[in-house]
Design goal:
about 180 residues, mainly alpha, about 55% helix
Length: about 180
């Protein structure tokens, strides 16, 4: 599990803060990938990651509103340092030429990771309200997984095509010259 927290001691406020941070981490990583790749249309890898960032942002905002309504401005005890890589895609997974198909597969894997995180955490949670929240969050991740599976199943064959570097010449050395 990608956290150093003791789930058996989480309060409902801690659980909401943790869930918000998990969504924030995913939002930041998807946004970074989208900005790194850029977009060339509505169906390329950059567009996939931008769409995932928007969805994660909405989820984060919903959790934050719920937390605010229940606990107001009480300071959080959970920080980003307490979690790592719960839902966000792996840092090295994105390539400049990745296809939309590969981007969706990466997003699917990330949602599956989040589901597994909540599922595993549930084994350690004792508070009934925290358990109920994590069950709800696990279900939402399952819905995201189902949505991505359907999208992937309906992608056209062209979605699997990786981009090509028009300037690439396999016969040209990596550097033409080291001389000034």
């Amino acid at each position: 599990m990608a956290t150093r927290l003791d789930f058996s001691k989480l309060t409902l406020m801690d659980a909401l803060d943790l869930a918000s941070l998990i969504e924030l981490e995913a939002t930041r990583r998807y946004t970074e990938f989208a900005e790194t790749l850029g977009t060339r249309g509505t169906d390329d890898a950059g567009a996939v990651f931008r769409s995932m960032a928007i969805n994660e942002t909405k989820h984060c905002e919903e959790i934050a509103e719920r937390r605010q309504a229940l606990f107001g401005d009480r300071p959080a005890k959970v920080t980003l340092n307490d979690i790592f890589d719960v839902e966000a895609p792996e840092v090295g997974e994105v390539r400049w030429n990745m296809s939309a198909f590969k981007a969706y597969q990466l997003a699917l894997y990330s949602e599956q990771k989040a589901y597994a995180f909540y599922d595993e955490a549930l084994d350690h949670i004792e508070q009934p309200d925290v358990k109920a929240l994590f069950e709800e969050l696990r279900e939402e991740e399952a819905e995201h997984v189902g949505m991505l599976v359907k999208i992937i199943a309906n992608l056209p064959p062209s979605a699997e095509i990786e981009l090509e570097d028009e300037d690439y010449d396999p016969d040209r050395p990596a550097r033409d010259s080291f001389e000034a």
